[in-house]
Specification:
The protein has helices at residues 56-65, 111-124, 132-136, 167-174, 246-252, 267-271, 296-301, 304-322, 345-355, 377-386, 426-434, 442-454, 458-474; strands at residues 7-11, 14-19, 34-39, 70-72, 78-80, 83-89, 92-97, 152-154, 158-162, 204-209, 215-219, 233-238, 258-259, 279-283, 288-294, 329-330, 366-370, 390-394, 413-419, 478-484, 487-491, 494-496, 510-512. By secondary structure, the chain is α+β, with helices and mostly antiparallel strands. The N and C termini lie close together (12 Å). Mean pLDDT is 90; it is low at 1-30.
Amino acid sequence: MLKKNVISLVVLGIVGLIIGEKLVMSSMTSSPLELNVAFPSKELISKYEPTNISLDYEYIFLENIFSPLVEINKDGVIEPGVAEKIEWNNDELKLTIRSNLKTISGRKITSDDVLFSLKRLLVLSGNTHGNFKDIVCPNVNLKSVEDSCDGLRKDDSAVYLKAKGGKSFLLPMLSAIDFAVIPRSSVDPKTLKIINYSETSGVYSVVKQDNDGKIELKMNPHHYFSSDKIPQAINLIPYDTMIAGESLRVLNEGLVDHITTVDQSRIDEVLNYSNNNKFDVHVTMKIRTLHALFTNRGLKELSSEERRYIALQLKNAFSEIYKDIKGFESRAEFFPHLSEGGLTPSQQLDLEKLNSKVSSSLSKKIKVGLLKKSNIEAWSQPILKVLPNADCYRETNFPEFKKYEKSEDEPHVFIASTDTGFLEDISLISYSLNSGILGLEKSKREKWLSDYMLENDKSKRIQKLKKLHFDALAEPVLVPLIASPYTAIVRKPWKMELSELYANNQLWRIKNQ
């Protein structure tokens, strides 16, 4: 939002009119461009950690204050990031670090910071968007950032990564914010916990967070994406996610200027803003998949026929919920049909045959977790009509990322949405494995991913991915329900240049026109 200026004019020696709210001398410079953003969390900034991302808003926050070695532009093409030059020498990747990248205070970001960040990730070993260790440091378990492995080294200007298999995945993987470059001085040397969110590698730096959870960000003028066209100051303003339509209310009342892609307002209501010349609306392809996922408890206590019965009833319930709402459509597969991970025609036929083997009823009581920010009754009431024995409750995270005190606290099945994609995406595949979406037992996931990434023949990898997808649907562990796009809104004269292929919401891609 461009702040109003007040101009003092002297005409014929007489002090003229004061226009606006503030006095500005004739030698004035432009006020900073400020953007107020509706943000679906008031979580403390100290909770945000690039090596342990499980929820969408965490990614959005982190991608705006940290930068990775390489970026993926809005068309899905790899481009330079913290590394200004990318060179392969056989299986070794040389990443030349920008010589002029600094934190907001002017501290230079060096190859030492980059190597430290990569080793920190390996020590913490929590990254959800790739299997980095098996590419650069197989058979080596780093206990400290001071430990070494053959696949990582640096000199004064560059970092070198030796790809022991998985060469085709390394650059796309490094674009995920899990691989954020974190200045070494911003991290506690003993615990490796981030202690300074002001000194960052990203386009924005944290100024402060107040008691209400609002986070103030300021543009880092030393960043390669800095510009006088992008927001110079950003306020991430929490809103009550339990109230349906609350983000649209604060937008309409002028309290915020931007609603992000991870907002859960009704898509049809957001699309209606396309006809309003006061707003710019962004719509991705239909890469958001609402799905049901059976947990370990559900797999143990329910037969495959019972799970198929539950799956059928959930599909019926959600088809009814969204049947007349613009932007939503029923989905039979997790990955979009005709995408690289989509089922083959023969797999589709086999799945139809399996889904015919379904129980005629269900007498067991089941616990159903709903990962939904606003009122859950919009989901729970239709579910109870088709599954009267269901105990529906609000879930806060994927069960794979939680620890339950008692086994009966774990749901049999839970419902959430996540992004999918049309092209092979190792970060998405890795996250879908780690979160349990693709159904593979936890003990088998690491080996499956390692074998997948070691396969250089893409056609064979895609066959492997399609089989994993099919097996998850056939069991069933995974039940796709509804497909929809991600949407975002910004008040003009701001205009978004976000990608239609990804759910990312880089605030520096919002520009004042």
